[in-house]
Design a protein that fits this description.
By secondary structure, the chain is α/β, with parallel strands linked by helices. Helices cover about 35% and strands about 20% of the residues. The strands form 3 sheets. Strands 1, 2, 3, 4, 5, 6, 7, 11, 13 and 14 form a 10-stranded mixed β-sheet that branches. Strands 8-12 form a two-stranded antiparallel sheet.
């Protein structure tokens, strides 16, 4: 028995392989709370998802088409009665007790609307999963220098899991542009919970009350930036996005699209354009919107060319 409240875990998947079973198996040791696992399969071949659902007692939801990440997560969360929801990618492996750490940290603070763990790459290095909200203050430095000088001061200010919080990440155009590798920090900083502008939707604990009050994820974002948008709206509504580095999961990124990265890069930049256009939507900001769109278009072309194998 446990005193922890029950939780619904919504796993969004598309064309999964063996990593979906690894997700479900690791979830069993991640928490002592009562868990309802819901798998939302956006793909067309449901064989793997059915096998995992049967083996691990999950409820399988089949939308019939690819809804995108946020819309599928909303569908999986619909009708939940548990006080806490988890939304996660299928290529996440939970460390033992990690969900308990998240539940305890979030439950200790009534202002917490979302809590996120440390996301580890398969080599054990840490992916920057807690960040400030995108603004124009330091974004140019981050966007221009992150690939050639990962430790630049603009990037360090942007990444909350590295130093601190606040709306300092300026013109960041995506959540997945960080180079692999460990982020340098002191041991004390590594274990300290701290607020963030937004937390990665790859693995996110949500207070159901807050999530439902905001209408869930904005489904106009097919993929990417739905987590940025949600973090922004949670903050505006008075909720805290809490980064909990003592909770750890390993994330094998991009397993469903590694062989075809170009469509995901284009989807990523389309969401970036949508988010920034809304953020700077006043009439007198039209020149800024045009400049941002032009910059994103150039960046998209560069990233697609970089990711496309040469014949």
């Amino acid at each position: 028995m446990t005193d922890r409240p029950p939780v619904r875990v919504v796993c969004v998947t598309y064309q999964p392989g063996p990593e979906l079973a690894e997700f479900a198996a690791s979830l069993r040791t991640a928490t002592t709370a009562q868990v309802e696992l819901v798998v939302v399969d956006n793909g067309e071949d449901h064989e793997v998802a059915r096998q995992v659902a049967d083996e691990y007692g999950a409820r399988l939801v089949l939308p019939g088409r690819n809804l995108g990440y946020g819309a599928a997560a909303n569908l999986g969360a619909r009708g939940a009665t548990q006080p806490w929801l988890v939304v996660a990618n299928h290529d996440v492996v939970w460390h033992e007790g990690s969900l308990d750490v998240l539940l305890d940290a979030a439950g200790a603070r009534p202002d917490v609307g979302a809590a996120g763990p440390a996301l580890l790459n398969p080599d054990g290095s840490r992916y920057p999963s807690a960040r400030a909200l995108p603004s124009l203050s330091v974004g140019a430095g981050h966007a221009l220098l992150v690939h050639v000088w990962p430790g630049n001061p603009w990037t360090r200010r942007y990444r909350v899991d590295q130093e601190g919080a606040g709306e300092v990440g300026a013109g960041e155009v995506g959540a997945d542009d960080a180079p692999a590798g460990s982020v340098a920090e002191t041991p004390d900083a590594a274990l300290r919970n701290r607020p963030a502008g937004w937390l990665s939707g790859a693995c996110l604990l949500l207070r159901r009350e807050a999530f439902e009050a905001l209408g869930g994820f904005d489904e106009s974002y097919f993929m990417f930036f739905e987590d940025v948008d949600l973090g922004n709206r949670l903050g505006k509504a008075g909720w805290t996005n809490l980064y909990v580095p003592a909770a750890r999961v390993t994330h094998v990124q991009g397993v469903s699209w590694r062989d075809r990265p170009a469509p995901m890069i284009r989807a990523h930049h389309a969401s970036a354009r949508r988010y920034l256009s809304r953020r700077y939507g006043r009439w007198y900001q039209a020149p800024l919107r045009l400049a941002l769109r032009a910059g994103l278009t150039v960046r998209e072309a560069v990233e697609v060319r970089r990711a496309t194998p040469r014949a």
